[in-house]
Amino acid sequence: MDRWMKNNNFNKILALVFAIILWIIVHVDTAATNQTTVNTESKIIENVKIEETGFDEEKYVITSRDAESVRLEVMGKKSDLTYKFSDAYKVWVDLSNVQPGDNTLPLNYSLPSGVTLEDITPNELNVHVELRNTKSFPISIVTKGEPAAGYQVGTPVVDPAGEAQVTLPASELSKVAKVQGTIELEGEDATISEKKLKLYAVDSSGNEIKDAVIEPSSVAVELPITLPFKSLPLNISFTGQLPGTLALSRVTPEQDTVTVYGTEEALASLSSYEATLNLSTLGSAGTQELKLELTAPEGTARIEPAVLNVSVVTSEIAERTIDNIPIKLEGVNTGLTALIADPAGKAVTLAVSGAPALLDQLNKDNISVVADVVGLTAGIHEVALQVSLPRFITLGNATQRLTATVELQAPSTPAPTETPDNGSVNTVSPEPSTEPASGEESTPEPVQSGDSSVPAATPTPSDGAAENSGTSGANGTGNNAGSTGGT
Q: Confidence class of residue 440 from pLDDT cuts 50, 70 and 90?
């Protein structure tokens, strides 16, 4: 080894090798440095959305802002700029300290690793903030379109019912006229149930007001879609017979009207609905609950309710005599006067029967007795009396003949006067009669019988026989029930 180290040529060769190695090392580092500098470049990123943080949305609302996004100019290696997604660039504004009015706030940003910001435009954000106000409005439902031909839309039922709260800036809240939901109709022929509707606020022109916060935001709606309908008063008539010892005291349906559905033409002729109660199903005194099945009138579609509950009260029959019931004259022809010759007192006594509770309320003012002389001429006539009794009250003797003798008189013709000497002729006009043309008694009002407030119709007796006209259709033995409803 010492021999080589002492060799001058060897030392020169070794020195040359070290020199070459050092040269390579220096030039390689320099090239790497130059390469990095060449790959650095800038890039423009447009429309980076400005996000919001720290904003109290329950207390404030932003009514205006001067920018929604920014333009970024960044610098970095080409590889970093090329392979970084645009959503890696973030820009936001901190709204935690805003106050009502105009606020100018700096923008914050974050960039991908290896990328630096050269410029941001704009670099601040101007926002106008207002306090939120809340006001309640009734919920209304509107419809667009039409149901099926011949059908009509009823009143919508909203759940939850009541009002909706609208929250807006004060300047916008003053424009709200109502809160509504809209149902689109396309020829429906049945009720729409549990329809979910979004609510929105509108102004007086019907334009939607954007950004309104509504609570509740939606409701469930039931919208009736039916044929035309008509509400009719309910009358109850009777068929069958009560046992001979019983009398009706009260008949009370659970409702006094029914609803009939059909075309407008079919409904036009209807003014009431008559249901029929079979009295033969009642066997003992007391209160019984009966069910009446209702049938839609001819030409109509349906009736509601289809089944009606009726409370019927019966009692053991009793009798009572009512004295001095005045006779009223009706139908006296013009030019005649009428006098009741018999009975002398111009009144009658009637035996009546019915439930004890109804008889206890009865007096002569509740009974009408009429002598109808319409069409009769001057002379003496025997006229059948027409008797009207309160509902569920009957004559005790249905075969009893009730008549009155009525005298109809024409005005007497005055005797002619002597002719005066001066040749003039004086005539004397007949004095008007002081006798009333018809009975002056007012028609007595029927007694309120239980729940009944309508007297039964009075048929005109035929063949000269007086008939019980206070009720119609139950039986012929004094237990008649009448045919009018609303008991």
A: very low
